[in-house]
Amino acid sequence: MVAAALFRPWAVWLLGRERPELKNLPLALHRGGRVVALSPQAQRLGVREGMGVEVARMRAAGLLLLPYPAHAALAWRALLQELYRLTPWVEPLAEGTVLLRLTPAEARLLAEGYGVRVGVAAWREVALLAAWSAREGEARVVAEGAERAFLDRLPLYLLRGVGLGLEGLGKLRLLGLKRVGELLAWSPAQLRAYLPEGERLLPYLHGPWRPGVARFPEGRWVEARLPLDLEVDGGPGLLAHLAQRLHRGLAGQAATWVAVEAVGAGLRFRGEHLAKAPLRGEKEVRLALELAFRRSGAWGMPLEEVRAVASGLHRPAHQEGLFRRPGTGLATLLARYPGALLRVEVLDPEALAPEWGFRYRSLEVEDAALPGAPKGPLPRGETPVGGPGQEAAGGAPPGPLAGRRALVAP
């Protein structure tokens, strides 16, 4: 069976988990001067997403305004890892929405344990609608074959969870529609013509419904956990131990993102670091861990438990030569297309006529690896010279390069 779990709004649910005293309060989270997430209690007071902070404060006097948690993305990845320990079939759809493969009994335990809404059905789309119709801490199960009866009695406003906007809901209510079953009588063409979001609603109303859940990609991270018997200060010694474990777990792979989570003094610390270059060596991993530790605020604190995660794993690619020796590929090319490549020999850059100063010659195989220009500043009046060892020849009058090796411009 497919189980859809809603940890939404994600940031509000996360703060409620970390700070239980915020539950059941009118809470609004802001970022960039705008409200971006709301608790149901704040919505009932008339606060809406996109409002300015001052406007929201004026709308509801008892509103609690907090900044959007910076570690929300990190916490979402950590939650997915928790769910992965329950089942390998975990498919995140968005922050706060995830599909799993669970039995109805397991889904009820998940809903009660996390206090979230869960829907269970044989189809992904029906499971999502069942989750939006459930209460917090409840799992609603739709038996196979009973999907049409479930949709017939489903309130129309619950389609907002899968894409129906306020404007579209208002237009449907003007027609007197209250249940999803009444909307099922519409054809797909009518839905597209009447509702701007009709295309998004078609898979939920007319299908095709999809079974199954994608398997969570294994090996996406490496974890090192240290449950400490005694309190240990977060410092270089602890970091060296964690870095050694993570580097051993990488097993030749490279990571791009490192996160740490520590518990100490009754507090939980989280920090992360996104590396600019792939983390391959133990020294690089240790430096990234130190940056994440310092951002978490756990540096120098007495800690009881530490957990470090390295993710974004990949195998570094190495660009190797196409041929074992210089000139090997060139020999094959010239053997098939003789005269295809030419060299320019500069005889006299100060010649009175351009045609006196250079000439063309066919490129030879021994010219494939020309000596490079010398490093550092050149002596005044000299020019880097390379190419075949014969003396320059031609009809040009003597010049600065007369008697020197030919200057080659590939």
Give an account of the 3D structure.
InterPro entries: DNA/RNA_pol_sf, UmuC. This is UmuC domain-containing protein. Keywords: Plasmid. The chain has 15 helices and 15 strands. The chain has three domains: 2-205, no CATH class; 221-311, Dna Ligase, domain 1, CATH 3.30.1490; 329-409, no CATH class. Helix 10 (188-194) packs antiparallel against helix 11 (198-205) and helix 12 packs across helix 13 (282-296). With 410 residues, the protein is an alpha+beta fold. The radius of gyration is 34 Å and the shape is extended.
Can you tell me the overall shape? extended
Q: Which strand order do you get reading across the main beta sheet?
A: 5-6-1-7-8
Q: Ranges with pLDDT <50 over ≥5 residues?
A: 368-410
Number of helices: 15
Proportion of residues in β-strands: 15-25%
Helix content: 25-40%
Q: What is the distance, rounded to the nearest whole angstrom, between the alpha carbons of the first and last residues?
A: 66 Å
How many beta strands in the DSSP annotation?
15
Structural class: alpha+beta
Question: Sheet with the most strands?
Answer: 5 strands, mixed
Domain module count:
3
Q: Whole-number radius of gyration?
A: 34 Å
In sequence order, what are the helices and strands, one letter per element? EHEEHHEHEEHEHEHHHHHEHEEHEHEHEE
Biased composition (Low complexity): 370-379
InterPro entries: DNA/RNA_pol_sf, UmuC
Protein name: UmuC domain-containing protein
Keywords: Plasmid
